[in-house]
Amino acid sequence: xxxxxxxxxxxxxxxxxxxxxxxxxxxxxxxxxxxxxxxxxxxxxxxxxxxxxxxxxxxxxxxxxxxxxxxxxxxxxxxxxxxxxxxxxxxxxxxxxxxxxxxxxxxxxxxxxxxxxxxxxxxxxxxxxxxxxxxxxxxxxxxxxxxxxxxxxxxxxxxxxxxxxxxxxxxxxxxxxxxxxxxxxxxxxxxxxxxxxxxxxxxxxxxxxxxxxxxxxxxxxxxxxxxxxxxxxxxxxxxxxxxxxxxxxxxxxxxxxxxxxxxxxxxxxxxxxxxxxxxxxxxxxxxxxxxxxxxxxxxxxxxxxxxxxxxxxxxxxxxxxxxxxxxxxxxxxxxxxxxxxxxxxxxxxxxxxxxxxxxxxxxxxxxxxxxxxxxxxxxxxxxxxxxxxxxxxxxxxxxxxxxxxxxxxxxxxxxxxxxxxxxxxxxxxxxxxxxxxxxxxxxxxxxxxxxxxxxxxxxxxxxxxxxxxxxxxxxxxxxxxxxxxxxxxxxxxxxxxxxxxxxxxxxxxxxxxxxxxxxxxxxxxxxxxxxxxxxxxxxxxxxxxxxxxxxxxxxxxxxxxxxxxxxxxxxxxxxxxxxxxxxxxxxxxxxxxxxxxxxxxxxxxxxxxxxxxxxxxxxxxxxxxxxxxxxxxxxxxxxxxxxxxxxxxxxxxxxxxxxxxxxxxxxxxxxxxxxxxxxxxxxxxxxxxxxxxxxxxxxxxxxxxxxxxxxxxxxxxxxxxxxxxxxxxxxxxxxxxxxxxxxxxxxxxxxxxxxxxxxxxxxxxxxxxxxxxxxxxxxxxxxxxxxxxxxxxxxxxxxxxxxxxxxxxxxxxxxxxxxxxxxxxxxxxxxxxxxxxxxxxxxxxxxxxxxxxxxxxxxxxxxxxxxxxxxxxxxxxxxxxxxxxxxxxxxxxxxxxxxxxxxxxxxxxxxxxxxxxxxxxxxxxxxxxxxxxxxxxxxxxxxxxxxxxxxxxxxxxxxxxxxxxxxxxxxxxxxxxxxxxxxxxxxxxxxxxxxxxxxxxxxxxxxxxxxxxxxxxxxxxxxxxxxxxxxxxxxxxxxxxxxxxxxxxxxxxxxxxxxxxxxxxxxxxxxxxxxxxxxxxxxxxxxxxxxxxxxxxxxxxxxxxxxxxxxxxxxxxxxxxxxxxxxxxxxxxxxxxxxxxxxxxxxxxxxxxxxxxxxxxxxxxxxxxxxxxxxxxxxxxxxxxxxxxxxxxxxxxxxxxxxxxxxxxxxxxxxxxxxxxxxxxxxxxxxxxxxxxxxxxxxxxxxxxxxxxxxxxxxxxxxxxxxxxxxxxxxxxxxxxxxxxxxxxxxxxxxxxxxxxxxxxxxxxxxxxxxxxxxxxx
Length: 1322
Known about the structure:
- The protein is of the alpha+beta class.
- The longest helix has 30 residues, at 994-1023.
- The protein is built from 44 helices and 33 strands.
């Protein structure tokens, strides 16, 4: 019996608190009957009755109901109730357990004097397709002594209230849909039955399901939004008046049944005599069985169609007004916050009660002295258990209407049923495996007087279980599942419901009863049941920890040998071999004992599969033990002077020694890993057995599951040999004798070699020598190297080694393995060639050529990987170092190497100019100082070797192109990092080939730039008038902040300028020829970046210039915060040409521009005050003149505007320089005259330090000049405080450029006199 704890706090509803003690279950004696052969039955001989003076526990006075899903428990007493919902909890030991915690408590009754008399919890199925049998919510149905039946949610919210009969509700029962197990079984409808003292009401399940859902939805809507309530559909029910019984206390609704033809003819002949007529179709009837007195049991039959179902008016508890809905939701259910007058009005208006349809008893079981107390219907609807006041439990056959079995000595018994499906394991050994799945039926009887729970097999089976429990428990049996399920929605569902539960109020423990199917097959002496019991006992023994190995071995051996059935014995042996607690000696002894036992039996009676399993597992256990002993011994084979000579390999090791040493330093950095993942952890025997299997011919085959398990197995077999701690040849001989193929041994050896790269590099000479010895030993095994292969093909044995080295990401280990294998293959092929004809030297050279190429490629990979492992400096982008191999580089195409180096450049944040300097030094043979300032000495030699080994793959143009693309890809991931895009453009500038430069620029534009540029243009068009709005919308439309957009626009301008320069130079230079190193010609990946760039089409220069103009305007507007709408400066043709494919020819704006558009362009105002010096002081004026020529704006207008702006800011000297280039002096003179008047007006009229001389001068001025000065507005000056000599010089310039016949020439003379007078006074 499984257990689920429910710890409830103390509630005022109950007279006694609920304790939190765990209930200890006594071990049942029936399990020991296998050994003693006696059927012990505890407590059956004598039962002590409780004294009448003993006080009953609190649970006996309560109405208790449990949802079949075990997620809601309702306990009610008189007018109050408490709802407990399921929740997960972690106990003190860290174990997760399900608890039932109080979710709601309160008063249920609303009428005066009524009490709770019955309750059930009905889970309602979810209508969602994703549901797999879980309930959507649970409805609590409560019957009262007033006759009312009320429906609540699990939170205590009242949904419905029905008064169907004005007598106390005795019992509520429910029937839900069950999937028919056989084709002939009648499909039963869902219904809720309500028993009154003399009436029975059945509510149609479909009608109830729809009404409950509608009411619950309306409650949710009313509480949330206060919407008016829609009347739900009325309930369809039938009401029967049960006659011919004195008292009725309980009932069960069996469902619809149809008589067979024989029973129909029998009944007709009994009632009508010999000449009675029989109807063609027997009528369908609903069967109801009641218990009570006079008679003791009654059988009622209601013919379908004899009466029409009644439609009730649903008395909804949901208020139709917003206020009552909100108040009711806050209080827990509806109706508490009504006014007193409203409550009285509701109580007075009782609903109409329909009369009952009379239903007479068909027959019964008469017993005048016996009174029934309860009836419990079986899940198959064919049997029922009845308890009475004589302490008997009677089993009824409902189809025949007779009692077929009776138990005595069960006073106040509580009943439940368990229907157990046949298990899959049982199904395999059943003789009726092809028939439908069988079900076993058990009756559960709880005798509270004796404190015992018994389980009996049906119909005449023995007692299969007895448990000692408390005397105050409550047996909870629902007898139904989820409501709202039908034959369509139940397909594929697994309804998660419990059938029988036992609630102990003393400890608060809720336990479920689970019975295995095999207990119904026969009695306790069944061999199969005994075997399963022994298997369970063995499983329990293996799960227990802390058992001594000797005890474990003896107990497991005894249980395994006692099992009779071969299939169960095989299952027990497999469980034993997969157990992690059993040592290898224990497994060997038990398997050997079983094997010897099978050998001693009759060969015809022995199961062949079981014998083969024992033989194979015994062989594997012996192999595991032998290898373990070889590794633990100190018997090391001496290496002679001529044995395993490594001539030639020492030279290669010394040649790559510095690189290997640097690589070892970079890979030996500390890292965090779990202890169980350590390669030094021993391999359990269970893991060894799970990876090995015996074939039919007696050989062993290794099962490759995961990479980790494969490496662990290889580490177990060969690492001791590679370290020199184990005898190499003895280990190889043991593995060869076991029958493992040399190919799998070779794969295991190479996997552990690659995995333990760090340890290998600590002692490379010793480990290489041991690897050479092992490789030679494996090569000499039968079946390793074929005696004869095609002279034009490659040896599969050595090809396997090459494939492993090619795919490995451990560059150093792969290179060392290639050195050893190359040496061993050369020696093997040479020895074979000496004994054969000289014509076979072609095959020899072909195989060795493959090794030469592989070694050269691995050396290149080692240098590249060493470079990639150099850690980046602090503050760089960082990230994990890329892993490369021959396979990844070949699959990456011809640009794979440059792509890897470009990622390294990005990780190290290497400046473009610095990379250019390094490449120039390498070309000039000055590579000794190329990386000293960048990363110290860490990448110095590696970068030099890289460029020497890859002169074509790492040419400057290819490297700059890949670096450009890597930076722009990283910028696209994080567009706020504007420096990434700037670095991409700078790398692009350094590409010397205009063809590659043009292609990369075009791809960057179409892939990353054009969409963001167009978004920025449209954003500025709609939000340029409001700077704050523009800042807020940048993230939404472009994905960048305000500052990042400015940087982005500047990079766009530079990118388009590079594109135009490359397009202009592409005709003068021929396209470069791309090549690759000879050993890397076999690359079969995607086209390289340079190849894609050369395949790009030429661009349309005017269209590129058109976009460059727009980007420049946008950049200027963002830089100087100009109130500018860039797109509005272009006509319709210009707007339509924007953001098109640069390779297409678009209709561009014509030479004659609309004068209105030109005037709009001329009105574009300049930036804020310009600095007197710096890059922006010259950049903005030159940009204005350049853009003005492209926008067809008169440059003289721009120069005049610039002169006025410079004077306005007090930059008189720069203004005089620009003034020399102005052509229309007359207009400029008029503009400067106004500016001079503003300066003089500020000095005379608006300055706070006005002198008396200035006031006298103002009085002496001509009236015309004085009036003109007063009309000037000095606030337009950005720098009003200008020294008088500068103003005097400005007036002098003004007189020089104004002709004498100018209308304002005399005004200029007056200004000159006034300024000179002020200067003289100062």
